[in-house]
Automatic annotation (TrEMBL), chains A, B:
This is Aspartokinase. It comes from the Bacteria. Belongs to the aspartokinase family. One of its GO terms (molecular function) is aspartate kinase activity. ATP binds at K7, Y8, G9, G10, T173, D174, Y179, R184. One of its GO terms (biological process) is lysine biosynthetic process via diaminopimelate. It is an enzyme of class 2 (transferase).
Length: 423, 423
C-alpha cells in the first residue's frame, strides 16, 4: 500500500464528464489499496472567468479581494469531485486551503506556503477516505484567503505530498509527459521517460508550462518523487501500466537513463527587457536598482551588468511581460533619478530560448554550438545568461520558433539518444 | 450616524454593472456618515449553475459537499463588490461566513445560525470601512462550511444586524416593497408602506417570495427593524427619499397606519398533500407519523387530523412539492406499516391560498367571506387551517390565480383602505 498524491489540472477537471473520469481513476487507485489525496485545479476557464469579472470592475483589482474571488474556483471543483467519488461508492471528503489548513504568507495572488497541517488529512485517510484538498490556495496569519498564483495547484500538490510524506506525487495533465521541447513548435519533440530534478527546474523556470517552478523547487527541497502523466488515458487503464507512464522527475542521477548532453529546449515569450544606460558605477548600484523592484513584488529574471566604461555601466534585466509597464513606471519615477541613469531603454518584443541539460556540466562546446546555430539562422543574440546546466539567450521574439526548431535539430533531440551528435 | 445593514439579492448583483450600482448606492450611505455592513447574495444564476453541475454528478448530492460548492457563489460576489467599492475610493473588505465567523449547526443545506462574532466587523467599521459579509453561509463546530438554504442571505443579513445591533436592516430586492398580493397574478395589487411583523411572517411562510421566513422570525425575535426596498432605483437617489421608500416591517402596531382587516393574500404552488387513511386512533399516533418525517429533515406545513370514526382517523398533511417523493417513500416503507394505516392517498397538484391580516383578530366573519368567495367561483376547498391572523385553504392548483384574484377583490385590497368593505 502506498500513499499517493494525485494532482489534476483544469483541463482534466473541465466538465462533469471529465470530473467523473477523474473519480474513476482515483477510485481505481483506492480500490487497489492505496491511500490517495487529490489536489484538483479549478475547472478550465473558471479562473479566467472570475479574473475577467474582476478586471471589468478594476484593471488592477485589490489583491486580497482577488484571492477571495479566485479561490472559489478550486473550492467548487473539489466539492464536485467529492460528489463524484461518493456517487461511485468511494468515501471522500473535500477541504479548502483554510480547512486543512494550508498556511501561507500574506503575499496576495502569489503567496508562499509556510506549513501544512496533516492531522485532518491523516485522520480521513486512516478512516479509508479519499481526501481532496483544494489546490492553489491557503490562509494567512490574519485569516485571509490567499492564492499561490497561476499554476499554484502543482505547488499545493507537492506541498501536501511533503506534509504527509507521500511515496509519489502524480501530476496528471493534458500532456503525456515532459518533452524535449514544446511539440506544438517542434513536431519531432520526444517524450523523456526520466528527467533530473535540476533539469526540470530549469525547464519549468524557462517557460515550459507543464509544472509551476515553485512546485519543482518544493519537490527538490523535500525530495518528493514527481511524475507527470496524462489524464486523458482511459481512467481504467491497468494500474501497473499507469504507474510507469509519463515522465519521472528524479533526484538520483543514475536513474536518469538518457543522460544526454542537452535534454531539452525551453522557451518563453512572456519576456520584456529593460536597460538603464550609463549608470554611475558605484558600490551598491545593483541593489539600488533591484531593491525597489523586488519590494514591489516584481520577479526579475535575467540580470546583466556590463563592465564599467568611464565610470558608468549599463544595467539590464528582464521581467515578465505582464509586469513590464509597472516596472518601467517604477524605474522612471523612482529608480532612474536615484541612481542617476542617463536613460532607460526597453523592449517588450523579446523572448528567451534556453538549452538545458545535466550533461552540459561535463561537456565543453555546448554553448558555442548553440551560438553557431543561431548565427547560421541569422538570429541576433541580445543577452546571454548561463548556469551549470543551461544556457539562455534573449532574442527578438519573432525568431522564437525558428530558434527552437534549429536548436532542437542541432542537438539531435529529434533522434534516439544513441544517435545524437556529441558537440 | 446610523449603523445600517444592506442586503442585496442575486438580481441586484446580477452583473458587473449592477454590482457597480450597488457599490454606488453603498458609497452614498457611507459618504453620508453611516456605518454600513453589506450582505450580498450570489450573482443571479450562479447558485443554479452550481447546483446544476452537482445534479449532473448525482441527483442527490452529499449535503456537506453541496454546501462547499454552493458557498462559492456568495464568496465570489462579495469579493467583486469589495473591489467595486475600493475602485470607487470607498475602503471595504469582504468576509466569508467562516471568517466572521457565522457559526451554525451542522444541518447541511439548511443550517441554522447559532452565533455571529462581531469583533472583526466592528473593528473594520471603526476604521471607516464598509464591511461585506457573504450571505447564505456559515461554519459548523467541526469547521465544515454550511449553507442556510434558499434565500438564506436574508437570514444572514438579519442575523448580522442583530449581532451588531444595527439601527435598521434594509433588504434591497427587485421589487419595491411588499404588496397585498403578487402583482403578476393581480395587477391591482397595492404596495403596503408598513406591515406588521406578524403579518409579514405569515406572508413569508405562505409563499410570498420576498423574504425568507427565517429572516423574519429572526427579525421578530430580536426586534430588528426591516425595510424591503428596490435596488432598481437610481443608486444616487437622495438618501432621505430612499430611507422612507419600500415597505417597513414594524413591531409596533400603532405604527401600522393601514390596519386593514385583511392586509394581503399569500399563495404557494409548491405544495403536495398526503393523507394516511384509517389509522387506528391511539395516543401518540401523530408523533409516530410525523416524527420520522421530521427526522428526515422534511418540513411539514399544514397538519389536519379528523375526528375519530370507529376507532380510526384520517391524518393529512402538506409538504413542499420538492420533498413529496421522498416523503411518500418514507411513509410507504416505514410509517404506514408501523401505524397500520389502511392506505396512503396523495396529491401533488394542490396549492395553498391564504388571507393574512392583524385586523382579523378583532373581526368575525372574515373566514366566512373567504369561503363564500371561493364557493361562488366554484372552487372546492380540500383543507382549511387557521391561526389568529390568517386563514389558509388548500385547493386544486389549477384554480390558484382565480382564487387569489377573487379574494383580492372581495377584501377590497385593490382599493384605498378607507373604501374597503368591512365584513
Amino acid at each position: 500500500m502506498s500513499l499517493i498524491v494525485h494532482k489534476y489540472g483544469g483541463t482534466s477537471m473541465g466538465s462533469v464528464e471529465r470530473i467523473q473520469n477523474v473519480a474513476r481513476r482515483v477510485a481505481k487507485w483506492h480500490a487497489a489499496g492505496h491511500q490517495v489525496v487529490v489536489v484538483p485545479s479549478a475547472m478550465s476557464g473558471e479562473t479566467n472567468r472570475l479574473l475577467g469579472l474582476a478586471k471589468e470592475i478594476n484593471s488592477q483589482p485589490d489583491g486580497r479581494e482577488l484571492d477571495m474571488l479566485a479561490a472559489t474556483g478550486e473550492q467548487a471543483s473539489s466539492a464536485l469531485l467529492a460528489m463524484a467519488l461518493l456517487s461511485q461508492g468511494v468515501p471522500a471528503r473535500s477541504y479548502t486551503g483554510w480547512q486543512v489548513p494550508v498556511k501561507t504568507d500574506s503575499s496576495f495572488t502569489k503567496a508562499r506556503i509556510k506549513s501544512i497541517d496533516d492531522v485532518r488529512i491523516r485522520t480521513d485517510l486512516d478512516q479509508g477516505r479519499v481526501v481532496i484538498v483544494t489546490g492553489f490556495q491557503g490562509i494567512d496569519e490574519e485569516g485571509n484567503i490567499t492564492t499561490l498564483g497561476r499554476g499554484g495547484s502543482d505547488t499545493s500538490a507537492v506541498a501536501v505530498a511533503t506534509a504527509i510524506k507521500a511515496d509519489e506525487c502524480l501530476i496528471y495533465t493534458d500532456v503525456d509527459g515532459v518533452y524535449t521541447t514544446d511539440p506544438r513548435v517542434v513536431p519531432e519533440a520526444r517524450r523523456m521517460t526520466v528527467v533530473s530534478f535540476e533539469e526540470m527546474l530549469e525547464m519549468a523556470s524557462l517557460g515550459s508550462k507543464i509544472l509551476q517552478i515553485r512546485s519543482v523547487e518544493f519537490a527538490g527541497k523535500y525530495r518528493v518523487p514527481l511524475r507527470v502523466l496524462s489524464s486523458l488515458t482511459d481512467p481504467l487503464l491497468p494500474l501497473e501500466e499507469e504507474m510507469t507512464s509519463g515522465t519521472l522527475i528524479t533526484f538520483e542521477e543514475d536513474k536518469k537513463m538518457e543522460a544526454a548532453v542537452v535534454s531539452g529546449i525551453a522557451f518563453s515569450r512572456d519576456e520584456a527587457k529593460i536597460t538603464l544606460r550609463a549608470v554611475p558605477d558605484t558600490p551598491g548600484v545593483a541593489y539600488s536598482i533591484l531593491g525597489p523592484v523586488a519590494a514591489a513584488n516584481i520577479d526579475v529574471d535575467m540580470i546583466l551588468q556590463n563592465v564599467s566604461v568611464e565610470g558608468t555601466t549599463d544595467f539590464s534585466f528582464t521581467v515578465n511581460r505582464n509586469d513590464f509597464a509597472r516596472t518601467l513606471d517604477l524605474l522612471k519615477t523612482q529608480v532612474a533619478p536615484a541612481v542617476c541613469a542617463r536613460e532607460i531603454v526597453s523592449d517588450e518584443k523579446v523572448c528567451k530560448v534556453s538549452i538545458v541539460g545535466i550533461g552540459m556540466r561535463s561537456h565543453v562546446g555546448v554553448a558555442s554550438l548553440m551560438f553557431r546555430t543561431l548565427s547560421e539562422e541569422g538570429i541576433n543574440i541580445q543577452m546571454i545568461s548561463t548556469s551549470e546546466i543551461k544556457t539562455s539567450v534573449v532574442i527578438n521574439d519573432k525568431y522564437m520558433e525558428l530558434a527552437v526548431r534549429a536548436l532542437h535539430k542541432a542537438f539531435g533531440l529529434d533522434q534516439d539518444q544513441s544517435q545524437r551528435p556529441q558537440p
